[in-house]
Amino acid sequence: SVPVGETTPGRIFNVLGEPVDNLGPVQSSTTFPIHRSAPAFTQLDTKLSIFETGIKVVDLSAPYRRGGKIGLLGGAGVGKTVPIMESINNIAKAHGGVSVSGGVGERTREGNDLYMEMKESKVINEQNISESKVALVYGQMNEPPGARMRVGSTAPTMAEYFRDVNKQDVLPFIDNIFRFVQAGSEVSALLGRMPSAVGYQPTLGTEMGSLQERITSTKEGSITSIQAVYVPADDLTDPAPATTFAHLDATTVLSRGLAAKGIYPAVDPLDSTSTMLQPWIVGEEHYDTAQGVKQTLQRYKELQDIIAIPGLDELSEEDR
């Protein structure tokens, strides 16, 4: 069981729900077990609505679904924290919601950087912890595999309290969903199970399903989750990312090329996808504008090689 409720935002917890930020014990009278069943089918909220992030390129080209699951694809150093911080700020200020950030098997340094950035942007208020908008749960890569795997259950448990009891909009982050699978693979090997494809655990689909089914919206409140997905060797057919994609409503792809040019957030509108970009959901005008932008960018991409070698003079008047 882990502490849940209004006293959790602004604090850092480990897998057992113990505070690790040297700010003393958490004054919480309510605890929830981390192993909970997913909401019943009849409780789910299925209506389609857009979750506005406030990031124009995302809201235009690959909008998020309120209560959906979003994958954030990008390697190290492409600025994953930029869309994360924007989304936390937006859900706190525009929707009065809270966020829970789950660091699953990532570097301690990254967790520390995120904490410092949150304090700087006042998402975590040091002077008055009760005004903070995000709780942090960390199981970094030096922890045993069991701890790293179970952090994936601890963070959603804290989010479920705000959804079910406070009836709020919640934004849980999982960084990184691949490390959750990796930890499960290590546990599976320790238990002596026969490995499946590419050496992953035979229960990969079940483990992923039991986590993802909990991160969902009910008629009480919404959970819109953003999950960073590391793609090993950029192979999208690898069983870990492939199993994750089956659960996602939208993917935001971060491009190293854009980050190198200093364009943040480095979202690539051509590679990013969303099930919400349909004319009957976002409207004809939004849909046509988004497709027009993508066509222009695609044409520019095709012309880049011509511009790079023979130069602009070789282009037709229209292409210029």
UniProtKB/TrEMBL annotation:
Q: Which GO terms describe its molecular function?
A: ATP binding; proton-transporting ATP synthase activity, rotational mechanism
One GO BP on record is: proton motive force-driven mitochondrial ATP synthesis
Reactions it catalyzes: ATP + H2O + 4 H(+)(in) = ADP + phosphate + 5 H(+)(out)
This enzyme's EC code(s): 7.1.2.2
Q: Where is the ATPase F1/V1/A1 complex alpha/beta subunit nucleotide-binding domain?
A: 54-274
Entry's SUPFAM superfamilies? Answer: C-terminal domain of alpha and beta subunits of F1 ATP synthase (SSF47917), P-loop containing nucleoside triphosphate hydrolases (SSF52540)
* GO CC list: chloroplast thylakoid membrane; mitochondrion; proton-transporting ATP synthase complex
- All copies of domain ATP synthase A/B type C-terminal, residue ranges: 282-320
InterPro entries in the cross-refs: ATP-synt_VA_C, ATP_synth_F1_bsu, ATPase_a/bsu_AS, ATPase_alpha/beta_chains, ATPase_F1/V1/A1_a/bsu_nucl-bd, P-loop_NTPase
Q: Does the keyword Transport apply?
A: yes
Subcellular location per the Swiss-Prot or TrEMBL entry: Membrane
Keywords, alphabetical: ATP synthesis, ATP-binding, CF(1), Chloroplast, Hydrogen ion transport, Ion transport, Membrane, Nucleotide-binding, Plastid, Thylakoid, Translocase, Transport
Tell me where on the tree of life, at the top rank, the source sits. Answer: Eukaryota
Xref: PANTHER family: ATP SYNTHASE, ATP SYNTHASE SUBUNIT BETA, MITOCHONDRIAL
Task of the protein: Produces ATP from ADP in the presence of a proton gradient across the membrane. The catalytic sites are hosted primarily by the beta subunits.
Q: Which family does it belong to?
A: Belongs to the ATPase alpha/beta chains family.
Could you give the subunit structure recorded for this chain? Answer: F-type ATPases have 2 components, CF(1) - the catalytic core - and CF(0) - the membrane proton channel. CF(1) has five subunits: alpha(3), beta(3), gamma(1), delta(1), epsilon(1). CF(0) has four main subunits: a(1), b(1), b'(1) and c(9-12).
Per its UniProt record, what NCBIfam families does this chain match?
atpD (TIGR01039)
Q: What is this protein called?
A: ATP synthase subunit beta
Identify the taxonomic lineage of the organism of origin. Answer: Eukaryota, Viridiplantae, Streptophyta, Embryophyta, Tracheophyta
Q: Which gene encodes it?
A: atpB
